[in-house]
Fold this sequence. Notes:
The chain is an alpha/beta fold.
Amino acid sequence: MQEVKVIGAGLAGSEAALQLAKRGIRVKLYEMRPDKTTGAHVTSDCAEFVCSNSLGSFDITNASGLLKKEMEILGGELIKIAYENAVPAGNALAIAREDFSKAVTKRIEEDPNIELIREEITEIPDGNVIIASGPLTSDKFAEAIKEFTQTEHLHFFDAIAPIVEVDSINFDKAFWASRYDKGEASYINCPMNKEEYEKFYNILINAPRIEQHQVDKNSKYFESCLPVEVLASRGIDTLRFGPMKPVGLIDKRTGIENYAVVQLRQDNSAKTLFNLVGFQTNLKWGAQKELIHSIPGLEYANIIRYGVMHRNTFINSPQILNPTLETKRRKGLFFAGQITGTEGYTESIATGMLAGINMARRIQTSPEFLSSQSSQRNSALFAFRSAPRRGDSEQDLITLPRETMLGALSFYITDIAHLKHVSSRDNSIRYLPLQPTNSNWAIVTPIELPKHERKNKKLKAELLAKRSIEMLEDFVKKY
């Protein structure tokens, strides 16, 4: 029987492995931890969350929420486990990160079709392979990928937010609330007046940062995961219109509309640990302590984990991948997760799911597999299969409609046309490097609204979501 090697047991790799296993395909899932660490992960469990414990909104009128719904329709595995390990977070899906990772690891270890192998891969194996080694790919394997793709890697930085112990928070100042009272009051909010904010801001912009290596100084940050000090450097009010915006957050004990608010989100199922939302940072630990203790309500906070930085690596997908996530140069080799240029946990899981489904289709439409399984066909094993073909046609693989969020995302990261740049000086053509992106409405095929409704963003999102769900449900029935 044909087998698949999946490199990396993070979110994308774990999802891909489970997709293949439930279709009766044997998987060798390689994970270099704990023998080789990344500098950001703290456990050896599969599908560990690193930067945050939030998967974003689950409201389908939010781009990330629609992507979650699409994964449910397509039979995603990790999204089910995420909901089983959810913690209160208002309108967002946040998880108890350790419980979630342990649950995924248990599923993988107990699956008879998956062999979890704890070792570093340094070369791209032959045969059927899904590379989901993530943004923290080891140097040796990164060199192997670089050699295969014949392109230079681009490096971005991700930053991790600090975590504090809830019992050390001063609730005489802090209060529980979700923005605009949506959902359960599940966030801890630390309010600031103008004087307190300016004091905080001055500490932040003057705080010493950890020195970067020279090779890292030319790297960039993910725009949606910028260190708080980088945001602050853009102007004194940037944080007040970003992660510290006070709108919709009023302490009912006082009724005061605050100047700025620091939010903390539940980080574990026991509700003992909370992370500072939007406070990813590269400040030195002593400076972090001073900054956190300057926040009203956190004056004596017990800091369980300080913020740290780690480098992200991703390929130039438009040159390398088809929208199916299979490489253009080699059939049976797929990439998935953040290494493709997608940004965000939900996006990593979704691309792992798509790569797993398409790898299964690549195998299940091969003459070898059709012959070996001729007496075992059933609806579960051949999920997402069209009529048997010769196994060498791109029609065997799924390219999701661009009206869906996942279809739009996979097309965006693999479409070179939007990177085309024509010089206004001499009309010369060059292609800009891929910039990582997460799920957003701008990449989805637009929908026409009546002229008087064109500025109605809520209505537009509702119609886009409805169209996507209907189209995807029809797509599933067809295939």
